[in-house]
Amino acid sequence: MPQLNPGPWFFIMLISWLTYSTIIQPKLLSFTSTNPPSSKAPVAPNTTPWTWPWT
Questions:
Q1: 23: burial class by Cβ within 10 Å (0-12, 13-18, 19+)?
Q2: Which of 4, 6, 8, 53 sees the fewest Cβ atoms within 10 Å?
Q3: Model confidence over 23-41: pLDDT tens digits?
Q4: Reported pTM
C-alpha cells in the first residue's frame, strides 16, 4: 500500500517470521504423526455378495 511507510511494517513482518522459524516451527515439527505413512500397498477387503432370501 503506497500510503504506508514500509519501514515499521517490514520490521514487524521480519520479526514475526524469525520468531516462527526459530521457535514455533521446530516445536510443531517435533510432534509425531498420529497416522504415519506406510510402505505397504493398500489391500482391498475380500467381500462376499449378500444373499437375499427372495431370490
A1: exposed
A2: 53
A3: 888 888 888 777 777 788 8
A4: 0.44
Place of cell 467381500: 47
Question: What whole-number distance in Å separates Cα of residue 14 and Cα of residue 22?
Answer: 12
How would you label 42-51 residue by residue, b for 16+ Cβ within 10 Å and e otherwise?
eeeeeeeeee
d(Cα 13, Cα 43) in Å, to the nearest integer? Answer: 48
DSSP element (H, E) containing 6: helix 6-19
With cell 511507510, the residue in question is: 5
